[in-house]
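Q: Could you fold this chain for me?
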Amino acid sequence: MKYVVLVFSVLFLSCNTNKSEEKKENNEKPKEEFQMYVASEMATLMEQMYVHNAQLREKIIKNDSLCQLPDYFSKIASATMTKGKERDAFFNEKAPFFIKAQTAIYTSKNAKESFNTMVDACISCHEVKCGGPIERIKTLYIK
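A: Sure. Below is the predicted structure, expressed as structure tokens.
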């Protein structure tokens, strides 16, 4: 009986040793701790503006009355940028142009045309600063 226990002990220990050796041979790196993505103030603002404009688009298509330009749009001039991005002269030039185009939607006799001009303003900036959302922005166009 002692021999049976000894044999099983040796087999068990050898199996565990092989697994740890395999990990060393595969050069497995220790798993990095998961870090939740936290959107910057600017990224959050851009998402809010997109949602607002998607709703505004539907109102224009249905010829519903338009509300007012939300105050939070003005935060584009001061919102904290995404890490690695900077508020440079190009951005500072484009931001007021965007606000002007956005405001025109509410005062224009041709809201559809003004809306598409605002979408153009978004894209013209994103072509230089952050191209990722361009395809999504294009879905706002009113045909």
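A (continued): DSSP finds five helices and no strands in the chain.
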